[in-house]
Each structure stands twice: as structure tokens, then as C-alpha cells.
Amino acid sequence: MEGIKNIIFDLGGVLTGLDGHRCIDAFDAIGCENISYYVKYHLTQDLFYDIEIGNITTLGFCDEVRRMTGKEVSNEQVIWAWNQLLTGISEERLERLLLLCNKYRLFLLSNTNDMHWQLCKDEFFAYHGHQVIDIFDQVFVSYEMHLAKPNKEIFAEVLRQANIQPAETLFIDDSQVNLDGAASLGIRGYLNKHVDDWLKMDL
Q1: Average pLDDT for residues 122-141, to the nearest whole number?
Q2: Model-level pTM greater than 0.70?
Q3: Sheet containing 188-191, strands listed edge to edge, beginning at the edge strand earlier in sequence
Q4: pLDDT for 168-183, tens place per residue?
């Protein structure tokens, strides 16, 4: 950690847990087995990629789910099922973030969509009167940036907007491919193999 002034956190698999089985069960429960298939086999093209990169809106996502499944499910049902992928942010993680933000500049960088982010922002990060803005200097989400990891352009944009130096920055992510993208610009990385691994780091 010598020389580190900034820490960039990924969201899924680092701060919030992910449960694909729960998401599959949720889509099955509302009769959208075709969408369950996408989740089960980690298919990111088309529907999920478009919502993650901001090519379609939440309403467009729900409309596409109805088109693909032939089911007249409500927007609320689709959003609920998709949000079942995220299991929440533990108090231990939130407490650690609140301590770290007094020592480092903290940033969030996630390949995510509006549905997942609104859930995290409104519920997961709401803790003892604190909000996400109390933890992170800036939040960078793929659906707003129209860029996604591991493309090095998204890391370059984060460095530019945050006005931080790569050599002074640590990136914590659960994907080696994403860390490699950051490393191409000189950002140091930590591979978070299990959701709470970063809690064991000497930060």
C-alpha cells in the first residue's frame, strides 16, 4: 500500500454479494425461464449487455423481457427478479468503508445497470444515516458512461474525471481481466476472489 492515496472498488463480488441461483429462481417464479437461461450460463450479450452499457433504459429492458418470454409480467416483477442477483452489503463492509474514506479517496467503478445501482444506492449503502455520497468521492457506473470494464477507456476516464494518478491508485475487483485492463494504465490491482477478501487487507 506504499504510495497509495486512492482506492477504486468494484461493486458486485467485492462490496455486494452475488447469487445467480437466487436470480434464476426469481425469473422462474415470474414465468420468465428464457431469461433464467441467460443468467445461468452467464450470457452477457444482447439484453444484459445493452442495459449494462446504457444502450437501453429500464423500461426498454422490461419490454424486451416481455418480448423474449411472451409473458405479460409487470415492470416491477422484472426489476424485482433481476435485483435478486444482489445479496446486499454487510455491516462489516460498510463500517470498513467509512473508516477507509477518512484515510484514502475512495471511488466506485462498476459494470452495472440502473436497476441494480438504484437498489444499492437507496438501500444497500443506507447505513446509520450515511449514504453512498458519504463514502465515495465519485461513483462511476457503466450504464451512465457507455463504457465497460475491461476496456481501458473506462479506466482512463476515471483517472481523468477523478484527477488521480494511476501509480497512487489501487483497484479492487473480482475479475483478473478487469485488473489487467486497469494495469495497462499503471493502476495497481488486488484480485478479490471471495467477496470479503479485501477486508483482510492491511489498508
Answers
A1: 96
A2: yes
A3: 138-141, 105-110, 6-9, 169-173, 188-191
A4: 999 999 999 999 999 9
How far is 133 from 135, CA to CA, in rounded Å?
5
Say how many C-beta atoms besides its own lie within 10 A of residue 121's C-beta: 15
Give the closest residue to 166 by CA, choosing from 137, 151, 188. 188
Q: Is the pLDDT of residue 44 over 80?
A: no
Predicted local distance difference test score (pLDDT) of residue 185: 98
Assess contact for 58 and 76: CB atoms under 8 A.
Answer: no
Phi, psi (5° rounding) for residue 4? -80, 125
26-40, 64-78, 86-100, range with the lowest pLDDT: 26-40
